[in-house]
Amino acid sequence: NAGVMQNPRHLVRRRGQEARLRCSPMKGHSHVYWYRQLPEEGLKFMVYLQKENIIDESGMPKERFSAEFPKEGPSILRIQQVVRGDSAAYFCASSLEENTEAFFGQGTRLTVV
Amino acid sequence: QKEVEQDPGPLSVPEGAIVSLNCTYSNSAFQYFMWYRQYSRKGPELLMYTYSSGNKEDGRFTAQVDKSSKYISLFIRDSQPSDSATYLCAMGWGAGNQFYFGTGTSLTVIP
């Protein structure tokens, strides 16, 4: 049973380009969480999704960031018009149900040049 | 005030020592608590999950939750060099809610 799969592992984008980060949850998991981690900082919540629904996006910046978790396929975190401050590690986690263990992927390290 | 407070360390111990890692929190509504281990440039790995108060043991790891004091602990017995990593506590309170993370404690176990 594969764990949470994130791709790409590393992503380099120039300022102003778009970044698309993908997350395939563990088999059978329908709850997905996205977190951002900056060096020397903890994990900061961004968004919580269930299949086809955004449940909590209180941690998402109001502009340029969006997330989806379609009925088929991976969850996507999309960052438009990236800026240098977007450079960070982005982690996805999934859980089987609400309030149960959340398992993380290996992350996507975004570098904006 | 942060939701979750965790001493960043660094913490350095000799091999075989008992390690105690702790977090405090401010929100009395938190009901479930997790400990993760994160190696450099890797994703967090779930070590322990507990619901409400009490103790839970898994091999060399013991997690304790004291809701009256808003304090949780992770104990590592017979620590090994492979335990050297950053340890993150996380907690949440209810349906559909996010997990709140501490900033992590860096641990080094010296052979």
Q: Please, could you describe this protein's structure?
A:
The complex is a heterodimer of chains A (113) and B (111). Chain A has no helices and 11 strands. In chain A, 34% of the residues are buried. By secondary structure, chain A is mostly beta strands. In chain A, a hairpin with a 5-residue loop joins β4 (31-37) and β5. Chain B is an all-beta fold. Chain B is 0% helix and 55% strand. In chain B, strands 2, 4, 5, 9, 10 and 11 form a 6-stranded mixed β-sheet that branches. In chain B, strands 1-3-8-7-6 form a 5-stranded antiparallel β-sheet, with no helix packed on it. In chain B, β9 and β10 (100-101) form a beta hairpin. Classes of the chains: A mainly beta (113), B mainly beta (111). Chains A and B meet through β5 and β10 of A and β4, β5, β9 and β10 of B.
Short précis:
The complex is a heterodimer of chains A (113) and B (111). Chain A is an all-beta fold. In chain A, 0% of the residues lie in helices and 50% in strands.
List the helices and strands and how they pair.
The complex is a heterodimer of chains A (113) and B (111).
Chain A: E1 5-7, E2 10-13, E3 19-24, E4 31-37, E5 43-50, E6 53-56, E7 65-68, E8 75-79, E9 88-95, E10 103-104, E11 108-112
Parallel strand pairs in A: 2-11
Antiparallel strand pairs in A: 1-3, 3-8, 4-5, 4-9, 5-6, 7-8, 9-10, 9-11
Chain B: E1 4-6, E2 11-14, E3 19-25, E4 32-38, E5 45-51, E6 54-58, E7 61-66, E8 71-76, E9 85-92, E10 100-101, E11 105-110
Parallel strand pairs in B: 2-11
Antiparallel strand pairs in B: 1-3, 3-8, 4-5, 4-9, 6-7, 7-8, 9-10, 9-11
